[in-house]
Amino acid sequence: MRVARNRSSKQLGDIGEPARPDELDDLVDSDVPAAVVCAHCGDADCPGCLHEQTKSGVVAVVPWERPGASVPARLWATARLTTLDADRFFESLPDGPIVPALAFAVTSELVASTAMALLAVVPLVALAPALAKHLLVEEWLTVLRLASAGIPALAGLLVVAHLAHGWALDRGARRAGAPGATRRALRFGLYAAGWDLVLGPIGAVVISSKEGLGAGLSIVGASVGLPGRCARAFLRGCYRLEGKSARPALRASYMAAVVATLVGAVAVIMALLFVALA
After folding, report:
1. Full domain range(s) for residue 232
2. What does the pLDDT look like over 88-138, one tens digit per residue?
3. 42 with 175, same domain?
4. Number of independent structural domains in the chain
């Protein structure tokens, strides 16, 4: 991204001869060639800071994969893009390594699951204060054990569901005749975990504090049809599938996500029962 810096001195009048007022007026309305510099760093020779590359040579359009900023800043910037600028983000999501995307998904889901667990305490305290006191004061060790097992289990369930969503998109796209792109599809699923962070209580608090209460409330509307919009954008950008040709992949992704969620939910409940009764 580059911006104009200055105009040629020849267009401001001949050397040693000041430009007349009428000439200056004409220059204002004319198209003037300009020296250009990078709007990001100010260097005229810069190839483009916004087109940074990772060590693997993959263009890093994902803030999470760019070095320099803190982990919370990169986490929030990426999660916000996946939710509030979802169509453009997923349509342009490049291929790349799985490990950074997996780290993003695990971090997002752990933070989101912790926030949901803490939020669940609020109605309990408001509606049943005696029970809340008993659990949090007298049975705090049991509550801690359940939270220590339940929060990671819930986060893992959500990561697996997102992975299944991405994997099924690739399988469905292959059936529609598109070349396979399994790794890129898995990255789609993993970065889609950002939805759970932004659409949860943490997202509402952060957006409300930074952009106002109205913006915080607007995330409810952003959640409507979000998985479908993101999947269609990814199919369009990665596989060049749109309209009817994208429907098989969309159906496969929805079914895989539902099955993975149900199976995972049963596993999480069984694990919590085991911890509670142990």
Report:
1. 64-277
2. 999 999 999 999 999 999 999 999 999 988 888 887 777 888 887 877 788
3. no
4. 2
Give residue-wise pLDDT tens across range 22-64: 544 444 444 444 444 333 333 444 344 443 333 333 345 799 9
Please indicate, yes or no, whether residues 74 and 40 belong to a single structural domain of this protein. Answer: no
Please indicate, yes or no, whether residues 115 and 209 belong to a single structural domain of this protein: yes
- Which of 11, 27, 51 finishes a domain? 51
10 and 71 in a single domain? The answer is no
- In which residue are the tokens 């819930």 written? 154
pTM: 0.72
